[in-house]
Amino acid sequence: MSTVLSVTKRETGHRSTLTQLRKGGAIPAVIYGYKVDSTPISIAAKDFKKSIQKNGQNSVFSLELEGKKVNAVVSEIQQCSLKDEVNHIDFLAINMAEELEADVPIKLLGQSVGVSEGGILMQPNLELKVKVKPAELPESIDVDISSLKIGESLTVADIRDTTSVEIISEDDYMLVTIVAPVSVEEETTDSEEEQEPV
Fold first, then answer.
1. From CA 29, how far away is CA 11, in angstroms rounded?
2. 115-127 burial string, b = 16+ CB within 10 Å, else e?
């Protein structure tokens, strides 16, 4: 089910206009894509934040713009790292009947056997690229890591058949690996080697 949000068409212009919008509790945004010309808009920050908290960033938004409803997904969010505020949003208008490609967060489930034995969990990639109809877009892809031992890894090939959506990331795309802990003895040896004269 899509989330209905009211948006307002805005004038493009000076940076001061954008600053004024943000001070007034709105977020500058743009919508483009299926049957929509690129249109600068603004959206109430509190409404957008509430919707994200309730439905997640991957939900489908029904944007009400000048009496017309447009189905869209978030294509990109620009955030201010200092204030943890959203500076700008790109909305992509979509055709609900057609599949789209999207990056979906990886959610690790369980406690790895290897970590319990002192191993260190490494997660080199935080998202997977999937192809799915908008209404079926998951908020995350669950990956069970409970059986992973030290020295073992999980790639897309290991989970491809366990998910209901089509993953288009390559089979060797690394999801998680458990590495052996570095012992104090190894660290000391490494430092001594570094200090030895050449």
1. 11
2. beeebeeeeeeee
From its phi and psi, is residue 73 left (phi > 0), alpha (psi between -120 and 50) or beta? beta
* Non-local CB neighbours of 140 within 8 Å, separated by 6+ positions: 104, 105, 106, 107
Claim: this prediction has a pTM higher than 0.90:
no
Q: Distance between CA 150 and CA 115 in Å, rounded?
A: 7
Q: What is the pLDDT of residues 174-196, one digit of tens each?
A: 999 999 987 655 555 555 555 55
Check: CB of residue 2 under 8 Å from CB of residue 60. Answer: yes
What average pLDDT does the segment 15-34 reach? 84
Report yes or no: 168 and 102 within 8 Å, Cβ to Cβ. Answer: no
Are 71 and 36 contacting, i.e. CB atoms less than 8 angstroms apart?
Answer: no
